[in-house]
Amino acid sequence: MVPDHSFQKELSSCSVSKLPEGFYDRVEEGSIKLIKNKAENFGFSKESILLEGQAEPIKSDLVILATGFNGIDKLKHIFESPKFQGFIVGKDDDAVPLYRECIHPQIPQLAIIGFSESDANLYTSEIRCRWLAELFDGKFKLPNIKVMEKDIAEWDKYKKRYSYSKNYRRSCIATLHIWYNDQLCRDMRWNPKRKKGLLAEWFDPYGPMDYAGLHSYIRASSPSFREVSFFLFSFVFKILLYFSSFPSC
Q1: Under 8 Å between Cβ of 56 and 130
Q2: What is the pLDDT along the chain (249 residues), one digit of tens a residue?
Q3: Kind of pairing, strands 58-59 and 103-104?
Q4: Is 234 helix (H, G, I), strand (E, B) or coil?
Q5: What span, in angstroms and rounded, lies between the C-alpha atoms of 249 and 229?
Q6: Which of 109, 118, 195, 219 could in theory staple to 124 by disulfide, Cβ–Cβ 3.0 to 4.6 A?
Q7: What's the DSSP call for residue 110?
Q8: Does residue 127 contact residue 209 with C-beta atoms inside 8 Å?
Q9: 151-171: pLDDT as tens digits
Q10: Are 220 and 136 in contact (CB under 8 A)?
Q11: DSSP strand pairing (58-59 vs 42-44)
Q12: Which family does it belong to (predicted)?
């Protein structure tokens, strides 16, 4: 079970799995059995499962059939037209070309939520849905096709450089999550700086709770922390100058 790729590649391709405590110990003792089998036929008895190619049935209390699926094929077969199938799939050596990870430049009427992964999929999909709602509500507009394709190409370069090649096309933003959220916030004219204070912005890690309460998001047009701090500093400085101008008794 030792992977043949680095932790960075695993994280960059959203291949990291969170396992329950003591999982590997139970695998070693045999109470959990991991069986890699591509059998097309299988059957169940009262207390076991029989896989094609296995001589003996496997006694089990619980069976998890981790069959997987090909998400790219599912996207492709949304359309009957070969032309649109080619649009959505893109080139074999590129990631699926989605602007902001959810809209194809050539098919702007279609939005795809959940294909691009991260290390926290629930809130990633939630903020994308809010982005779409703002788009449909006319709060902002999509750029032209060339601009969207250029943006997609920039993200594609990063994915080719850092993502695990085996899972490259699945499109993972785990190591770019904060930057990605900043883009969505700027599109919606929200302030991407979610922290309360400059020190927190520099040193406090970002997480899903920083984007909680979507209705209370601060618009980017509102004064930033830096602008407010400068205003207060200028005000206090002027007061000090005013009082220092009086002659001492």
Answers
A1: no
A2: 676 767 667 666 677 767 788 888 988 998 988 887 777 788 888 889 888 878 888 888 888 877 766 778 888 888 888 898 888 887 777 778 899 999 999 999 889 888 888 877 888 888 999 999 999 999 999 999 999 999 999 888 877 776 655 555 667 887 788 889 999 999 999 888 888 888 888 888 888 888 876 554 444 444 444 444 444 445 444 555 544 554 444
A3: unpaired
A4: helix
A5: 34
A6: 118
A7: E
A8: no
A9: 999 888 877 776 655 555 667
A10: no
A11: unpaired
A12: Belongs to the FMO family.
- Tens of pLDDT, residue by residue over 180-191, are 999 999 999 988
Residue 235: phi, psi to the nearest 5? -65, -50
State residue 219 phi and psi, 5-degree precision.
Answer: -70, 150
Q: Which residue has the tokens 């098919």?
A: 107
The two tokens of residue 117 are 């992964």
pTM of the model: 0.67
Please state the separation of Cα 184 from the chain's center in Å: 12
Q: What's the gap between Cα 96 and its chain centre? A: 14
Separation CA 121–CA 129 (nearest Å)? 12
- Rg (the chain; Cα; Å): 26
Sequence-distant (6+) residues with CB within 8 A of 248 are none
Question: What φ, ψ does residue 197 adopt, rounded to 5°?
Answer: 115, 155
Tokens standing for residue 58: 């496997």
Task: Tell me the pairing of strands 48-51 and 58-59.
Answer: antiparallel
Ordered strands of the 42-44 beta sheet: 42-44, 48-51, 58-59
